[in-house]
Every structure is written in structure tokens, then in C-alpha cells.
Amino acid sequence: MMSYLRAESIEHALTLLKESASGAKIIAGGTDLFLQELPGHLIDIGFIGELKEIKEEKGQLHIGAALTHTLAANSKLIKDKATALAEASSLVGSPQIRNIGTLGGNVINAAPAADAAVALVALGAQAVLIDLEENIRCIPVDQLYSGFNCTSVDCSSEMLLKFIINTCEPGEGTAFVRFAARRALALPMANAAARIKITDGVISEAYLVAAPVKPAPTRLTETETLLHGEPAEESTWLKAELSAAGEVAVRGSLLRCSADYRKHLVGLMAGRALRTAASRAVERKEVR
Ligand SMILES: Cc1cc2nc3c(=O)[nH]c(=O)nc-3n(C[C@H](O)[C@H](O)[C@H](O)COP(=O)(O)OP(=O)(O)OC[C@H]3O[C@@H](n4cnc5c(N)ncnc54)[C@H](O)[C@@H]3O)c2cc1C
């Protein structure tokens, strides 16, 4: 028979996981988990306040893994200092899904084009995990994937605590965009996120991520290199669109779109994310 246990704190969740041995799994919102084969024991971490906190400390945002998409999308701190994440969360599923689905679940479920995960990778987020012996490890979000729809995290013995993101400073801007058959309740055919820094009208740093390209949200490194040192203007975004579409090898899907169409969309989404991130960087005043 299946059991459902509600954890009141991080320590309590770890104790419950230990007591349940390997037949247990963490549940947050359950929006992904309930569509899969359920384990013998579910440990609910969705009521632990500490896992829902958003804090700014020494130029970094600390964002709890059990923060819901609704809270992420509405957080002033996230909207201001990590705009792409607020944007991605605001586009997940529907209001009902956003009210219970969490950032941690989005990443650990390991769907290749999970919206918040794509934004987190472009923002350079680190994931902080704790194991049953209370050892902590910190790892870049894109390294939490071990294959299509597979995470490298064993959710019966390790828990994701939070994400750490360097806050967006003057001269920097971020953006997330996606393309789907409908505005709500449709998984994206392609999505992209960008983080860009502009110094004296020239691109001094660029992170560009697109999905679904590989199992994990994928940095488009050839396009990032091409952008470095280029003027922040329309001719550069057009070159970046072509480069982004050219550097990915994507799969088609019977349900969503052909490989050729998806390749074209990756270019378009990359261009849109870059243009919006760049205009936000300029609004925040260029670094001199
Ligand atoms: C109708 C519908 C529409 C959707 N639309 C979208 C969409 O547009 N975009 C999108 O990206 N996703 C979408 N999703 C997927 C889903 O809602 C999100 O991925 C959501 O963020 C998952 O979070 P959750 O808290 O519900 O995860 P859960 O289902 O609770 O957990 C998912 C996995 O993560 C593990 N887990 C959760 N939290 C932790 C933790 N802190 N530490 C360790 N392991 C953990 C669980 O054990 C499980 O394996 C949709 C889902 C549905 C049902």
C-alpha cells in the first residue's frame, strides 16, 4: 500500500526519506510525478517554508526549490534581478499548474524543454542539494541531467534545496521566450533564454540557451562566441538567428513539429530572446 507523509522541515524530510529506505520519493506539486509510476512512499516537501524562500545576499539570489511558478512569476526580486526566470514561470501550463508546480520539480523531472529549467541554465544557476547524511553539494543546473527525461539526482536519497543565481547588474539583461501551439496548456515546440551584458554599445558577455535540443537545456556556444564583441544592433541579432539555427541538431516530434520547423524556431526564439535581453540591458544603463 502507498503512503503519503508530509514533511514539516528539511531535517524531517531527510528523516522520513531515511526511514522509508529506497521505496520513497520526494513530491512537491505532484504535477509531473502523478503522471508517472508512483513509488511506495511519497514525502511531501511542498509545505516546508524554508524551501519557498527568495533571498538576495551578496549579489546572489537564493531561490527555494519548492517555490511555485506563481510565486516565482510574481516575485519583485526575481522579476527585477532574474527576469528570464519570472517570465519562464509565468508561461508554464495554466494558473492551476503554476499554483502548485515548483521550480525544483521542473528541473528534477528533466524534461528537455522545461521552461523554468531553460531560464535557470541561461542565468547560470547553481543547484544546491543535500543528501541523507546532510552533505551539501552545489552543481550547475545543466549538469543535473543524465539523459532524455532522466535526472542524475536520486530523489530517494537526495533533495534539491535551492538555486543560486548571480543577480543581474547594470548593463545586463535577461529574457525568456517560447513558441507553442497555444498560449496555455501546451508544451513548447521550442524555447530560448538569454543573458547578455552590453558595455559601450558592444556585447561583452552572452549566454544563450535553447531547447529541446539535447537532454538538458543547451547553451548555443558557437552563437555566444559570434556575439562577443559585436555591436548590440539588429544586424547582429539577424546573424545570431542564422547561427543558432545552424548549430543545433534537433529531433522532430509527431505531436508537435518536424525537425526542420523546430530548427527554424530555435533560430527565431534565440533572436527574440537576445533582442529583448539586450533592450533590458540598455534600460538598466550601460556599464562604462
Ligand atoms: C497540464 C500540465 C501542463 C504543464 N505545462 C508545462 C509547461 O508549459 N512548461 C513546463 O515546463 N512544464 C509543464 N508541466 C510540467 C510540470 O507542471 C512542471 O515541470 C512543474 O514545475 C513540476 O513541479 P512539481 O512541483 O509539480 O514536481 P513534482 O511532480 O512534485 O516532482 C517532479 C519530480 O521532481 C522530484 N522533485 C521535486 N522536488 C524535488 C526536490 N526539491 N528535490 C528532489 N527531487 C524533487 C520528484 O521526486 C519528481 O521526480 C505541465 C504539467 C501538466 C500536468
Salient structural properties:
single chain; 2 domains; five-stranded antiparallel beta sheet; 14 strands; four-stranded antiparallel beta sheet; 288 residues; Uridine Diphospho-n-acetylenolpyruvylglucosamine Reductase, domain 3; alpha+beta; Enolase-like, domain 1
In short:
Helix 4 (83-90) runs antiparallel to helix 7 and helix 8 (221-227) runs antiparallel to helix 9. The protein has helices spanning 10-19, 69-74, 76-81, 83-90, 95-100, 103-108, 115-122, 221-227, 234-247, 259-283, and strands at residues 3-6, 24-27, 41-44, 54-57, 60-64, 126-131, 136-140, 145-147, 150-151, 158-166, 172-179, 190-199, 202-211, 218-219. With 288 residues, it is α+β, with helices and mostly antiparallel strands.
Question: Care to describe what's here?
Answer:
With 288 residues, this protein is of the alpha+beta class. It contains 10 helices and 14 strands. The strands form 4 sheets. Strands 4-5-10-6-7 form a 5-stranded antiparallel β-sheet. Strands 11-12-13-14 form a 4-stranded antiparallel β-sheet, with helices on both faces. Strands 1-3-2 form a 3-stranded parallel β-sheet, with helices on one face. A hairpin with a 2-residue loop joins strand 4 (54-57) and strand 5. The longest helix is centred in the last third of the chain and has 25 residues, at 259-283. Flavin-adenine dinucleotide binds at residues 25-33, 45, 65-66, 92-93, 97, 101-102, 104-106, 108-109, 114-115, 153, 155, 159-160, 185, 187. Flavin-adenine dinucleotide binds next to strand 2, helix 6 and strand 10.
